[in-house]
Structures are given as C-alpha cells and as structure tokens.
Amino acid sequence: MSLTVFDRSLPLIARITRLVLIGMALWHLYVAFAGPPNPYVMRGVHVALALVLIFFTVDFKGLPIEVPRWYDMILGLIAFFAALYPSLNLEYIFARFLYVDPLETRDIVVGITLVVLLLEATRRMLGPVLPITALCFILYGLMFTSTLPSVLLEQLFMTTEGIFGIPIAVSATYMVLFILFGALVERMGVGQLFMDFAVALTGKQAGGPAKVACVTSGMFGSVSGSAVANVMTTGTFSIPLMKRMGFKPAFAGAVEAVASTGGQIMPPVMGAAAFVMAEYLGVGYLQVAVYAIIPALLFYVALFAAVHFEAKRRGIGAVPKEDMVPMRKVLRERGHLFLPLVVIIGVLLMGYSAPYAALCGVISVVPVAAMRKTTRHYVTIDNILAALEGGARNVLSIAAACACAGIVVGVIDITGLGLTFSNFVISAAQDRLVIALLLSMVAGIILGMGMPTTPAYIVQVALLVPALVKLGVQQEAAHLFVFYFAILSAITPPVAMAVYAANTLSQAKIVEASVAAVRLGATGFIVPFMFVYEPTILMQGDPLRIVVVVVQATAGVVLLAAALQRYFYGKLAYWQAFVLFAGSLCFIYPDWRVTLAGVVCAGAVYASQTLIQPKPATQAGK
User: Can you tell me the mean pLDDT for 507-515?
Assistant: First the structure.
C-alpha cells in the first residue's frame, strides 16, 4: 500500500510538512511516556512546531494550502527559531534578575518578532478577533499603565507568565494528547459506533431522529471537544434524517448545534478548556469532570425533553425501520470500541494524571480496533499515520489560541488589570451577586462570540473569576460559571458559530435557527446560576442532599423545556406556558417553599390539561 505521506505525486514540501506534523504528534506521545523536559523546552518546542506548521499549511487569507509561498516559509522558520530562543538560552535566562537586568538588543528583536508572528499565525488560524484582543491589551499596558515596554516584553517572552504560561503548558501536555486520542478513535470507526448506538438506543421513541442527534453529538462532542467540528461530523447524518421525518429545518439544525455545543461540558473528555480549569484550580482533571457531570446531564435532559415535547406537538414518530440498527448487533460488531474510553476513565480513577491516562487511551486504540474483524480493516499504517497527521493539524489552532491568550494573561498579571477589573465589577454590581453574575454572563458570551472556548475562558478567569470569588462564590462554581458561558456563545446570536455550521446542512433561515437554538439551550443559561447558589449540584456536600437537589433540578429543567416548546400533556395555551415557565424556575431555586410553589404551578397546568380541558396526547401542527 502506498502511504500518502510518501506519495511522490505530492510536492516535496507537502510531504515534508506532513512528516513534520506526524513528528509533532509522535514527539508529544514520547514526552508523555518519558516525562516532560524543562518547561521552557516543552512549551517552546510546542509553540515553535505549531507556528512553523501554521505558516506552512495556512495562507495569508486563512485558507489551507499544500505548498506555501516562499515568504510564508521564511516567516515560519523565523517564528520557529524565535519560539525556541528561550529554551536555547536557558543559562542566560536563569542567570538574569527578572525585571531588573536590562534586556539585550537581541532579546528585544527576537521578542517583538515572536509576538508579531504569533498574532499573525493566530489570525490565519482563528480570524482577527483574538489577535486584535491581544493587541488591545498590549496597547493598554503600554499606553495606560506605568509598565515599561521592556518589562512588558520580558513578561510576555522570557518568563512562564506570558506566551509560555499556563495556557500553552496545558496545550502541550493535556490537550494535544486528547486531541490525538480523538483523531485516532475517529479513524478506527468510533463515529459510526456512536451513531449506531444512538439509533439503537433512542430511534424507536417519538422524535427518534432528533433524540439520536442528542445522544450522538453528546458522545462525539465529549471526545472531540469542538462544537463546529461535531456539527459537521454528526450533522451530515442527523439533520437530513430529522428534516425527512418532519422537523422544521431550523429546529433540526438547532438540535444538532445545541447537542454538539453541550459536548464540551460532557465528561469524560469535555472540551480543551476543562484541562486549563484543572490547572487553575490545582486539582486533577477527574475532579473537574466530577464537578461538571450533573450540570452536563441537566443540560442534556432538558434538550432531550424539549425534543420529545416538540415531536409530540408535531406528531413525529420514530426513526424509519430501514435506518434502525439492533442494539445487539451494534455492541457485537463495534461495542469493543468503547474500551479506549473505559481505559482513560479507569486510569484516571486509579489516580494517575490526565496526560498519562490519555497516553494509555491512545496506546489502547489500535489493539482494541484489531480485536474484531468488523473493525480490523481500519488498522493500517496509512490510517494510523493519517490520524496522527490529522490530530496534529487540529492541535495547531489550540496551540495558537493558548499562546495568544497567554499574551492577554501576561498583560493582565503585570499591569494589575485583573484586580482593577474585579473592583469595577463589584462596584457596578453594588455588592449584589446576581448583578455580578449577569455582568459576567454577558461578558462571557461577548468574549466567546469572537474567540474559541479556551482563550475566552482564560481571559474570563483573569478578569471575572476574582470578582465572583470576592462576592462569595465558591472557586469551583466561579470557574464553571464562566466556562459555561464561553461555551454557550457558540449558540448565542449574533455570532453563533455552531448554528452557522448547522445551517450549511439544514439550509434554514439563520434568525429562525438562532432563536430555536436559544430556546433549546435555555437550560444551559440557567444551570450556571443554579450551581452558584446551590453548589450541591457540583457533587459537593451530603449525598442525600445531592440526590434531592438533583431530582428537584431535573424536574425544573423538564418543565422549562415543556414551557418553551408549549407542550406538556397536550399543546399549551400561552397562559399555561407562562405558569409552567414560572413553576420551572421555582423548582430550580433551592428553597423548599419556592419549590412548593413550583409544584402548585405544575399541578395547576396538569389539572387544566387533563381534568378541566382534556386534550389528545399528540397534536400535529404549529
């Protein structure tokens, strides 16, 4: 078999680039096995490889290319050596007194060069918003504070508090391994397993196609950690099927967008920002997954309920028989592909680090796929190398985002902007927590609209989390709060990237699809407030109390879905929907007296539908 990386029909530079991508993946796997080198070396090599590969694979317009222009190759090589500069001069850096010894001319030239080329590489990969944001913070530090330019450059370039700070450290040690794991399992047929498993699990129920999308996208998203990539992968099957079964195009696209977005908050893998959160909180990644599990389940319960009520309202039934797959057949033919996920969870439960767990997961993928004849054909050298190459390509955008976010964090730290902004939020909120939370929510959504989740979360940690903690919010809840809204920006107008991606498949009107996505994802906007006021939802506290609160919250999100879809035990009149909406909020608020009011509201609507004015259980129509 002819390996694509050695295909002589490709230009030489394209073959070299692919080999470097594979080499980048293998180097990170080796480091995970042998142990990381000095932080400057580990992070410097990671940034250097990412930058040179970005300039070699993405042109000035942000389009992928096989053969770079001569000037892109020069820029890539300059960026490569600039990023390696600190790790190649460790003795010099360690011998200096930070912020006291003056920078040499070469330090200034190389540092400015790296910052400029990093901003350009990030613009090519992610668009202009994040680089412009970083540039604005740099200008703020230079023009509106007493920070010397040389001190600011030293902070960004020659310490582990800027470009080579925590965000890029997490990218180099955690994210890259889980991204490689996701690329490898996808190449071994896990995507088809998730789809068939979801069809077998939910396909026979009312609104089966939309429920299949919920399950598939949640499972796939928990591995991929990317809402847009998730939409384009699972949506190619689920959206046409939903449309064919009678769901409106806007609703079909919204279901896929919301389900795919929720994958970033669904353990076991979650999105890349979850690894950054673990680093900031100083806890193991498994602990972050424990915090996130109940909120994530509430999100998907509400989405599942909304789909069910909408299907009942429109009289939409199960997946057609010709598309059904028996569960026994799914598990017999592909069920073993769940084992790599089991390996990761098992290693984490044994107390090992997340990078080691990811490495064990990666190592287990190929032997597991080779276990049975139904998946053995995926196990080829060409497929494995393609997975390593594809995984490394996916790392590039994450690395650029984290390095660029490091600029923002470095400026915030050296100028004291974080403390200033925290005081501003507290002052604007007038010491009222709910106002501070609303301000943080708006800020998080605005930041997330223009940035990927990870840098948006990192910026919010520096600016917003300290203010929330000062107002009495538990640190874990404060981090998860801003994390949620950085994610939910993917379905929030006007820049709802997951909805835009789904619309390319559903061909719906963007405004209609955006409204449908907000309605379906409404619980996601409420759950963060729930765990701020009731940390029990984060699995903290008495087990009995946890059970009671979870049952109460589950009832609340189901009633909320019913109110928003205007269907309960029949189609809801507007007044009934309003009463049920109010009742759902009462269930969500952690106070037994308020909960009792919610029970009364739900009971009144139930009685009005089943006793006073009985309605058929299924009604088609609007």
Answer: 86
